[in-house]
Amino acid sequence: MHLLTLIRTNYHLKIVARFLEKRMKQYLLIGIRYILKAPAPETIDNLVGIEKILIIRPNFRLGNALISTPAIDAFRERFPSARIDYLATDKTFPLLQQRPVDHFYLLSRAAILRPWQCVTLLRRLRAQRYDLAVQVSGGSTSGLIVTRLIGARYSMGSRKGQQRWYSIEAEGKSSHAYDAIVNLTRPLGVDCRNRPLLQLTEQERYQAMTKIQQLVSLHSDDPSDTNFIAIFVGGHQNKRWPLAFWLMLIDALEASKIRYVVFLGPEEFRLLAPIEQRLMPSLYGSLCAPLPIRHFAAVLVRARLLVTPDSGPMHLAAALDVATISLVRQTKSLAFVPREAYDTILWRPEISTVIEAIRANLDGQNSTAPVQSASPAQWPICRLSSASAGRC
């Protein structure tokens, strides 16, 4: 097994790797703090000659990349004639296609073991002589480091601590990750969507319909009947749910005669065999083999809703305006889950509660229940509307 794959799929190795990575970034940040002077404060209206912009989000998690997408359109609206480039990763790049970006720079996971690739990339970025470098995530140390080291004339990002890091600093505090992007772009004076964006091509939608018909036709005599709900089994570290939960949910969906398709995350290969075995006699469910991320998105957009832990596909559904039922295990996930009127948040639910929420959604019962202010453990079903966003 490749070393990076082993690290990503082993809980203890991943913890050690993240600790070492975080410590290395801290040392780099300390060096930048003492070597480079704090930039002079500026405002958007005072910036002159903005012809080349670099948006920076070199993160490998799909959800983090999706959360940043509205910022691209906001900067394009504010600077319509400027060249806008984007620093992403080879894993998240497909999610950014079809956005108004002129050129992408991609960071690979292999650079973790080959740091000279990072140095080469920084030199390429410095050679572009950007007028404005934008760090879209206030909590990203790597993004902050890149923003300061590429030598752009101006920089922009969310306020971080007491020290000034950027020429233009936006409000850094927000109760929800989607609001952080809105806060960042507010100095631009343009509207910014408060949830992720993803644009699919007609060809991708057509190819997805063929895949959906293959999955659903196993349980329907009508080839035009492609209704299904999506179940995503995956997540990151403690956001995951145990195998027993998913097997019980499958049994409950069968008993409720609800048609569904199960999708597995890339790190859930250990769960493939037991889930596949449980689905063998199924009358209503199918297991979808892993798909390229954009193909998966084109399939997901046809789902009536997505049942998922806090995960990349959760944000993918938000970008596609697909209803979600978010299965939350950690309080910090409440700052990331979709919060439209048709979205539902379940705090450590029983299987019966999940089925109840699914039925309510399928029956069109989308009325917004009041958000509880008590401990998260006391929230059986928590629904967020735009009016109640941020109170969980």
What does this structure look like?
With 392 residues, the protein is α/β, with parallel strands linked by helices. The chain folds into two domains: 34-188, Rossmann fold (3-Layer(aba) Sandwich), CATH 3.40.50.2000; 202-383, Rossmann fold, CATH 3.40.50. 38% of the residues lie in helices and 15% in strands. The chain has 13 helices and 13 strands. The protein has helices at 3-9, 11-35, 62-78, 93-96, 115-127, 141-149, 177-185, 202-216, 243-256, 272-279, 293-300, 312-319, 351-362, and strands spanning 52-56, 83-89, 103-107, 132-135, 154-158, 168-170, 229-233, 260-264, 285-288, 306-309, 324-328, 344-347, 382-383. It has a seven-stranded mixed sheet, with helices on both faces. A six-stranded parallel sheet has the order 3-2-1-4-5-6, with helices on both faces. Helix 3 links the parallel strand 1 and strand 2 (83-89). Helix 1 (3-9) crosses helix 2. Mean pLDDT is 84; it is low at 365-392.
Identify the notable features of this structure and list them briefly.
single chain; 392 residues; alpha/beta; Rossmann fold; 7-stranded mixed sheet; 6-stranded parallel sheet; 13 helices; 15% strand; disordered C terminus
CATH architecture of the largest domain: 3-Layer(aba) Sandwich
CATH superfamily of the largest domain: Glycogen Phosphorylase B
Order of helices and strands: HHEHEHEHEHEEHHEHEHEHEHEEHE
Distance separating the two termini: 42 Å
| Biggest beta-sheet profile | 7 strands, mixed
- Fraction in helix: 25-40%
Give the count of helical stretches: 13
Oligomer: single chain
Query: Any idea how many domains?
Result: 2
Q: Would you tell me the overall average pLDDT?
A: 84
Neighbour order of strands in the largest sheet: 9-8-7-10-11-12-13
Beta-strand share of residues: 5-15%
The Cα radius of gyration reads 22 Å
Annotation, overall tally of beta strands? 13
Low-confidence stretches: 365-392
Instruction: Please identify the top-level CATH class of the largest domain.
Output: Alpha Beta
For this structure, the CATH topology of the largest domain is Rossmann fold
Shape: elongated
Structural class: alpha/beta
